[in-house]
Structure formats: C-alpha cells, structure tokens
Amino acid sequence: MNNIIWTLKAFAELNPFELYQILRLRSEVFVVEQNCVFLDMDNLDAKSLHLQGRSDSELIAYVRILPPGLAYEEPSIGRVITSATARRTGAGKALMKKAIEETISMYPGKSIKIGAQLYLKRFYEGFGFEQCSEVYLEDGIEHIKMLRK
Fold first, then answer.
1. Overall number of domains in the chain
2. Arithmetic mean of pLDDT over the chain
3. pLDDT exceeding 90 applies to what percent of the chain?
4. Domain of 45: which CATH number?
5. Which of 100, 86, 30, 27 is nearest to 58 (CA)?
6. Which residues does 118 contact at the CB level (< 8 Å), separation at least 6?
7. pTM (two decimals)
8. Average pLDDT in the 132-140 region?
9. Is residue 119 part of a domain?
C-alpha cells in the first residue's frame, strides 16, 4: 500500500477529530475485535508521539512512540494497529518501518523495546526485534517483551 500519508504529532498537536479517530480505531481493534475489556487510555498518550497513516483521509494505521523512561528504559513503539480494511495490504509493515525510522531518528543509537502480543512474534522479528522476556499475560492476552538493538 503506497498511497499512505504519514503524520507524526505530539499529543497537544492532535485536533479533536484526529484524537477521536485514533481512540475509535484502538477501541475497534483492541477492545471489540480482540474481545478484551481494558482501559486503553493509560495516561501515556499525552507524553507520546502519535504516528498516523491515512489513505483517502481515513485513519488506517497508527502507533504511538514513547520516549525513553516512560514505559521502559528504552524508547518504545506501542498501540500498533491497522484497520480491518487495511490488513493484508502491506500497511502494517509500512507502519512498523516508518515507526522504527522515526524512533531511530529521535533517539539515535538507542535500542527500541516493545511489549508484543505473542502471536505477532514473527512479524516483529522481521523488523529485527528479539524476544527478551518470558511469556506473560496482559489483559488476558499472551505477550512478550522484545528488543531491537
């Protein structure tokens, strides 16, 4: 999927419509689709950067980039998500590639740590992440920590 327009914004730069679309997409996938009742708004959004991928002005891909010291000692990429309409189009791979590029640009020479759903381990390994923890449950879903050096 090559027609994605990427924008990276601090929380305070998001307009109400962008914020609504981000929170709606996160709820659609993480709460409804994955049938997981959890509090998505975890007080980390205000200190994170928000990478949005849009096609025809529709939000189809999103991550938040957390600075070092917020979730982990290292910078982190989290809330990785693509809309159902964008899956199997390459949008998820494009999203992770862009998120890694942006994170490296902001924090050169630093490793990137993520908390990944276990079933996505191979996907993240394709971007150089390696498992660095045992499997643990988060909100009833198996996760692992992964590190990209």
1. 1
2. 95
3. 88
4. 3.40.630.30
5. 86
6. 135, 141, 142, 143, 144
7. 0.94
8. 94
9. no
Computed from CA positions of residues 8, 11, 17, 23, in that sequence, does the dihedral angle turn out positive or negative? positive
Residue 57 domain-assigned (yes or no): yes
Query: Does residue 125 lie within any of the structural domains?
Result: no
Residue 16 lies in a domain: yes
Q: Greatest CA separation found in the chain?
A: 41
Q: What is the rounded distance in angstroms from the CA atom of residue 127 to the CA atom of residue 144?
A: 15
* Residues pairing with 78 in the sheet: 64
DSSP three-state, residue 130: strand
73 SS3 class:
coil
Report which of 99, 132, 133, 138 is spatially closest to residue 117, judged by C-alpha positions.
138
CA distance 35 to 123: 22
